[in-house]
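Page 37, top half.
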Amino acid sequence: MREFVAVLTPDAAVLPENGRSVATLLLSRPPTNTLTRQACREITEAAAELGTRDDVVAVIVYGGHEIFSAGEDMPELQTLSADEAATAARVCADAVAALAALPKPTVAAITGYALGAGLTLALAADWRVSGDNAKFGATEILAGLPPAGGGATRLAAAVGESKARDMVFSGRFVDAREALELGLIDQMVAPDGVYDAALTWASRFLEYPPEALSAAKASFG
């Protein structure tokens, strides 16, 4: 039984004739959806489950109406030994890699904040939709840490190396408008419309052959 991550799919009665659906990988660790070791393990498990679901064509990654994720759980990290912290970093990286490897189109629906490892998790999705009041940041440097889960590399792939270095070295926050200009997000909408916009984006793929979509995603490496 997962404690912090759920996989949600539509009721069978509302599915299209082909039986395909868009699933939601829901982060639920209020109030800030910080990524503990357990939460990361559950993300890895949920991504693996979704990868095997023939009825699921695309996946939305969502943190709820208030916040996507504020990143790694700093109070937990501060209690860990050096070996435990290394394990926690690996578990976080595994969660990011599992989402990135999911063989279906993925859309991150971002509300509130996507910071640190939370931003890296969002960058593991194929596309990102956010509210116009959302804030983004590679904030690990503010805690004296490097970006988690390959965050610097993923950020550079999205916004270019120079802009990524600026964000990583400074830990500064980026608002939604700048994020759109940088290419960090793909669509900016009103805060209340984030999930619906992500669903519209993901639903475009319902009529496509799942095998073709998987092969198309794999072609990007």
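Page 37, bottom half:
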Amino acid sequence: MKDESAGLIIGISIGVVIGVLLAISGFFCFRYHRKRSQIGNSSSRRAATIPIRANGIDSCSILSDSTIGPDSPVKSGRNGSSFWLDGFRKSNVISASGIPEYSYKDLQKATYNFTTLIGQGAFGPVYKAQMSTGEIVAVKVLATDSKQGEKEFQTEVMLLGRLHHRNLVNLIGFCAEKGQHMLIYVYMSKGSLASHLYNEDREPLSWDLRVHIALDVARGMEYLHDGAVPSVIHRDIKSNNILLDQSMRARVADFGLSREEMVNSHAANVRGTFGYLDPEYISTRTFTKKSDVYSFGVLLFELIAGRTPQQGLMEYVELAAMNTEGKVGWEEIVDSRLDGKFDVEGLNEMAALGYKCINRIPKKRPSMRDIVQILSRILKLRHDKRHHKSLSAMTDEVTIDVDGPETNSHVPDHRREESVESTIDYEV
């Protein structure tokens, strides 16, 4: 009996152990399959929300060139290329961004086998292309050896898929095929702002046009900061990244370094362009909307002085600031190419605004909304002045015949034409 009892106990024990082992195995199998499912879903979500940056537009005429130029999961393939290509291209980009995808063959044909080079940026070469619809576009091609460029490519597609404003460059398509990554933009025929400020072969920009360009850029940035949800910090505002269309309207370009404000704003490495970087960002590695405001302030002084940060622009500004009194005294830094043709009051207001933007203390810098209001007021005052002068000129030309039965007003044709032309110039 004792032997039977012992055998029974042993049998029950073995059964219990086996049952426990089976339960544990089943539990781990369940966890494994569930984990795989979660990984797949989270990868998809992560890729869809990852911040992206597309590096510079061309340094010559079309897009802009950033000196530095967003992150994606990687999977090895036959040639070691990143794995996000297929998954990102097919599911994430098309569904999340809504940006159309073009085939490599389409772009090869549109660029005449990539022979229509119009610029070279940090991202890679830029080509002018004519699509099958007849539309003229700019095709920016990622250099095949650029690892950072892949991140920027993804950032640009994802961000510009949801950002739409008349003062932001339009991304109309992309290509991710045959190991190539390309971005397709609306063609900006007048090129970059930098090319107009520093190319001696181009006519110098008039003062009014410079203020208009500043306002266009400010409106685009105001949309990024206050209109986009979530807000976007550009992180690379500079004259090379401001593009001009046929009507000389300005658009902000190159979103490769851009980040949504909700994303961790602490950067391991400083990214951007030397001379435009907020000193606070350099020292703390933390970027905010006020970092963009600082860069915009540098851009304002570029428009005023016609000088790059690499040419000692900010030192030049600081020296001038020592001799100014509030909103007056900035005339000494004006671009010599303007040949004295500028509005003194508007210049001093714009320079005073720029100086507030580059304040070492971020909290003391104005918001982009405030900047838009100030620049709009400067333009309105300028318009009112010109309108008043025009009326005065017309009054001076009026002749009164006291002996005749009626009063004759005569405005010479050339004066009339000048008045119309000046109004058109303002509207451009």
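Margin note: Confidence is low (pLDDT under 50) at residues 35-95, 400-428.
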